[in-house]
Specification:
Number of strands of chain B: 10
Radius of gyration of chain A: 34 Å
Number of domains of chain B: 1
Number of strands of chain A: 27
Largest sheet of chain B: 6 strands, mixed
Number of helices of chain A: 23
InterPro entries (chain B): AAA+_ATPase, ABC_transporter-like_ATP-bd, ABC_transporter-like_CS, MacB-like_ATP-bd, P-loop_NTPase
Shape of chain B: globular
Oligomer: heterodimer
Strand order of the largest sheet of chain B: 6-7-8-3-9-10
Keywords (chain B): ATP-binding, Nucleotide-binding, Translocase, Transport
Protein name (chain B): ABC transporter ATP-binding protein
Structural class of chain B: alpha/beta
Strand content of chain B: 25-35%
Radius of gyration of chain B: 18 Å
Number of domains of chain A: 4
Family (chain B): Belongs to the ABC transporter superfamily. Macrolide exporter (TC 3.A.1.122) family.
Structural class of chain A: alpha+beta
GO cellular component, one term (chain B): membrane protein complex
Amino acid sequence: MFKLNLKIALRNLFKNKVYAAINIGGLAIGLTAFVLLLLFVNHESSYDKWSPELKNVYQVREYHDFFTPDNKAYWQQRSESRIATVLKEKIPQFKYVTKASEGWGDGYSVKIDRNNPVIVKDIVDADSLFFKVFPYEFIDGDELTAINAPNTIVLKQSVAIQLFGTDKVIGRQLKLVRWRSDEGNLMTVTGVVKDPSTAESLAFNAITHTGERDTDPDQISNSNYTGIYVRAEKFLDTNVLNKSLLNVYVDYKKALLKARGTTYNEFYKEKNRKAGLKILPISEVYSTPSFSENWLAKIKPIIALSIFLLIISVINFVNLATAQSVQRAKEVGVKKVLGAYKKQLVLQFLMEAAIQTLTALFITIILVELLLPAFSNHFNVQLSFWHSDQLLSIISQLFGLFILITLLAGFYPAMVLAKYNPVKVLKGNYESGFGGIALRNGLVVLQFIIAVTFIIGIGVMYKQNHYMASKDLGFDRDKLINISTNYETGDSFVESIKRIPSVKYVATTTQVMGNTFNTSRELTFNNQKFDVNAVTVTMDALPALGVKVVTGRIFAKEYAQDTINSVVLNQSAANLLGKNLVGKTFTSGPKNDVFQVVGVIKDYNNESFEKAVLPTIYKVTHLGGSSNTNNLLVRFDNDHYQSAIKTIEAEWKKVYPDFPMIYTSVEDAFLKELKPSLRLMQIVVLFSIISVVLSLLGLFALSTFMAKRRTKEIAIRKILGASDLQIINMLNKSFMILVVSANLISWPIAFILTKKWLEGFAYRIDMPFWPFAIATLTSVIIAVFTVSLQARKAAVNNPVDALKYE
Amino acid sequence: MIELKNIEKYYANKGVKSYILRHVTTSIKQGEFVSIMGPSGAGKSTLLNILGMLEEPTYGEYHFMGEDVTAMKERQRIELYRNHIGFVFQAYHLIDEMTVAENIEAPLLYKKIPGSERKSRIADVLDRFNMVAKKDLFPNQLSGGQQQLVGIARALVAQPSIILADEPTGNLQSTQAEQIMDLFKKLNQEEGITILQVTHSEKNAQYGNRILTIEDGVIKEDISVEKQM
């Protein structure tokens, strides 16, 4: 019986090729999006699972506000280095405690023999216990002693091959230069570890042991922040352990703060701060980033989109199968009187759904293989299907998906079919056996709701992206590059590039798009305390950025005072402090240094538009401390500055042969900030187009069946004198009601969703009206066009043909 | 074999009962060849459907081989289809996606008859109906008469004790119709299969040995046919 049913199924598919193609193709597209997402989710949840021993590895997180983007406290991956020593002494459950610090900036320059220096990212400096905590597999070298001595380095196998062309590199030496003027350390390779099969949250290309991680700062007032990882003897109850951890931490902080001349109460209680230290299993580190939302929250919209897409294709399947069931009614009736159980019929039709789903799944696998490179590129991950280590689990997931889709898509049509009353069908009375019209209409409406919402989404996102791309940033990002290096006054390199003809300004700031470093500062103005963001700049920085002055002036060489205690405020800071600020003074810092406001500039954006510009003070002086964050801004005075960059590079190479020059244009840095929302838009556009096409295919097939079903009615109406146009209108009307009601429902849905999306931006457009109008117009026009195509066919037919067979 | 007692079928419409069958009481014995006649809308087809358990009477008793049909569950009824009842339709109702042989095989599949026996039975029936050459054709490649032969072959292959035929020759030309009626007669006389047919044609009715005439839902006449042959 199975064989016969299989044959019938295949014969039916071949008989209705268009229908089958729409069904299977639609399902394949929906599934492809879903499977790609599945692969991505699998990848993202595979972090730090490459060894069973990692179960006993934990990351220490301290709750503090140092180095945070908005100067607020977070659970950070970098903790104060002295904590490692404390933990080693006070927590017996920790077998090993290691400190590992990821490098700053763009990576280190690696120079081997006399070769050109190359930049290698993710070189992690650790103490000698790193490989006691992390169970990396050594393919060369001794894992127990590899990084015991200072100035040793352990390479990943892939990196060793990339740098030396071989993984037999024990004893080879390389020079590690960490910034341009660094003398460099000669490191000896003492080990090569295998690249793990799955991703790591602490990703490194090489582990160095410079010796810097072995000690804490001598002065009690100085702190050093580093990653701390621990290896436990056996499984730990983190809840219980974190309680004792907190006690240890509070005791430590009390002693530390006392040594620094303040008290725990003063530092925490009075300022409403929270003290915190905890451990996190290493497997949870990746999914718990300190500042941003985790990957699951980030891809939530995409998860929703692909589920919607899958729903649309399943709806197509259900709709078409149910509509097509008329053709199968007789078969059901006959089989019933021949003695088929209802269950047998349901199974038969489920099997047919299964065949189509399986075919769709095969196409999906092909599509996934084809799309994977582009997809991986888009999401910046390395995904694979056939070569994945999780192939087995992927296959079982696909099997689960197959069952789910078969049931979703096949169950309802199977039930409808199996329910046919044989007497009615065999009499040729299909109409009354033709159930579920209301449901089918409902599904068409649902499809169109999704499609229209998508279209509106595109419109709003397009507007917002357009707004962001063309928004006045408050500074001039054109003809401006940022060389990744520190700037020191009187620097001979800087003096030499200042002499290059098309260079207009050379300056540094701690706040520029692409590399913004916010430090919080408390100031007292009119006896009131304010928290503002402090930015250290050089004299030329604000003119180099091209900021706009609102009142007063910006720094200039003519004013000697500027190097002593002048500050410039941005508009937000000015709004915070009050009116008529130019010439007023405030105090700040432990010694109550006095600063004088010389001007107010317009707010300028230096981060993505999700974030509002912070109230900021700009100062040239070193008074009250300053920072330097690897920015060297060069402003050119004409558009043909490529040759000038070449000259700068040549100059650089002369002075710093061991470190390559790295720079970005500020324009590129700006585009990079726009990328996340642009990326989301690209995906939404793609998914929207697919969903609209799928919905229309569904509508197309459905209208075909409707027209067929009403052939007799159309013929009789024609004989009674209806024109073709009247008939087309009649057929259109029933669909138009569905499309219009779908539009009415999707308007509020789209409004709420896009509003929520827009609210994620500090700088955003007002809700535009035209995407709504356009979505509605588009959907109506396309639906009319689709249905008319079918209706015309039915209408121009000779009525005699239709009636002859009745 | 079949006992009907006071069978009634009506539809209630706005409080008014419109009767299709009224007070139908009759019995049909094993081996009879009964023709049901009457004008359009008299209730012939409804009666046949009730006999075939495709419809339920609103009221009355129906015993099939001594069992009360009205009290049966669906599964039991399906068992009866499988083992005792063969249907033949005016519009043949062959499954379009199946070949001749597969159409004939279908009821055997539901009876869970093993493959080897299925093959021999199909071969047997095809041989008897001279359709061996057409076994791999699809229904739409056959003439109406041939399709009806397949329909009858399908009803017979499960070796039913009764065949219910609703206007079996209604769509056929007279020569083809005669062929079919001869076949029915032969099956009835030689194999003792009970046959119940609904027909408009006096001539076809003469093939059987009993004629039930229904008018307005009531049995008007119940006469046996003189053997002329």
